[in-house]
UniProtKB/TrEMBL annotation:
Native organism taxonomy: Bacteria, Bacillati, Bacillota, Bacilli, Bacillales
Top-level taxonomic group: Bacteria
This protein's encoding gene: gvpN
SMART domains, alphabetized: AAA
Protein name, entry field: Gas vesicle protein GvpN
Catalysis: reaction(s): ATP + H2O = ADP + phosphate + H(+)
Keywords from the named record: ATP-binding, Cytoplasm, Gas vesicle, Hydrolase, Nucleotide-binding
Length: 304
């Protein structure tokens, strides 16, 4: 593994191995050339963290938006949020009475409009969770470089996209079936880069640097989690991720639980954190079977 600067992970929050460095460098070039990037991969592999780091490197203000079923065009573009009224009553001279009343609607800009207008870097996390009809607006942004304002009662029909505006999408392919069908027209306009689990050595290094557990303990926890991950089918969206390893390492460290596969407290901790994803991943609802699988996997790591 290539030598890394000790403070890499501290300054960016992301440990950059050669694969990640490569992805960052290519993505930066694509964004600079005006193309949108799309990171796709399983949960917890670092897509959002990578998007945030990339956005930071663009040195433009960053706007973060999360896809969800309820997201509407109003959230993206903006909406009239109420009325503002102003009344002037002038009866300083008794015989003269003047009354003036102004009522104006108050408009507030949506997140997308702000980002497009001011040239921000937009991160649209888990975009496939939003309705395709909501995401359609990106077609005009990416193709015609305009944001249409139809249906908003705004005077202008559209606003032009700022030349520095860029967008990074993320998605989890395993979710496509359960969420919305991905929109091929939108995907056709994105440069899609797959992000997968890091190798065990890198995951252990992340764990040790982020939680303060020793390298050996981090390696042990990583081995348990990745071995359980391997037991689940590759297309399952419930395979245990680096997040689970981070939770186990943090709790073991803070609660003084020995990272020892034969220790009952450690086994219980691993079970509490891993049973749900393992039972979903293996499609096994019998808790005692899952407990045995987790315990057996724990015992495979040796006491330090
Ligand atoms: N290379 C890395 N260096 C340091 N931490 C990492 C790295 N990759 C992932 N992580 C950590 O793993 C956790 C999950 O990362 P992140 O949320 O970016 O994943 P994701 O792929 O976007 O997940 P999801 O699809 O569930 O949103 C975070 O705590 C993140 O800090």
């Amino acid at each position: 593994m290539a030598e890394r600067k000790e403070n890499d992970i501290v300054s960016s929050g992301l440990l950059q191995n050669d694969v990640i460095k490569e992805v960052i460098s290519r993505s930066l070039n694509y964004l600079s050339a005006g193309y949108p990037i799309h990171f796709t991969g399983p949960a917890g592999v670092g897509k959002t963290s990578l998007a945030l780091l990339l956005a930071k490197k663009r040195r433009r203000p960053v706007m973060l938006m999360h896809g969800n079923e309820e997201l509407s065009n109003e959230d993206l573009i903006g909406a009239f949020t109420g009325y503002h009224s102003q009344k002037v009553v002038d009866n300083f001279i008794r015989s003269v009475y003047k009354k003036e009343e102004n009522v104006t609607e108050t408009w507030s800009n949506g997140k997308l409009l702000k980002a497009v207008k001011n040239g921000y870097t937009l991160i649209y996390d888990e975009f496939t969770r939003s309705k395709p009809s909501t995401n359609n607006i990106f077609l005009s942004i990416l193709e015609e470089r305009i944001l249409p304002l139809y249906g908003t009662k705004q005077q202008e029909p559209f606003i032009r996209v700022h030349p520095k505006f860029s967008v990074i999408f993320t998605s989890n392919p395993a979710e496509y079936a359960g969420v919305h069908q991905t929109q091929d027209a939108l995907l056709d306009r994105l440069i899609t880069i797959p992000i997968d689990y890091s190798d065990e050595e890198t995951e252990a290094e992340i764990l040790s640097k982020k939680t303060g557990v020793s390298k050996e303990k981090a390696a042990g926890i990583t081995r348990i989690v990745s071995s359980l991950r391997e037991k689940c089918p590759k297309n399952s969206q419930h395979r245990p991720s680096l997040r689970a390893s981070l939770m186990i390492a943090t709790l073991a460290h803070e609660e003084g639980i020995p990272v020892d596969g034969k220790d009952e407290d450690f086994q219980q901790l691993c079970f509490d954190i891993l049973w749900f994803s393992v039972s979903k991943g293996l499609d096994e609802s019998d808790q005692s079977k899952i407990k045995n699988i987790v315990e057996d996997t724990c015992k495979e790591i040796e006491r330090e």
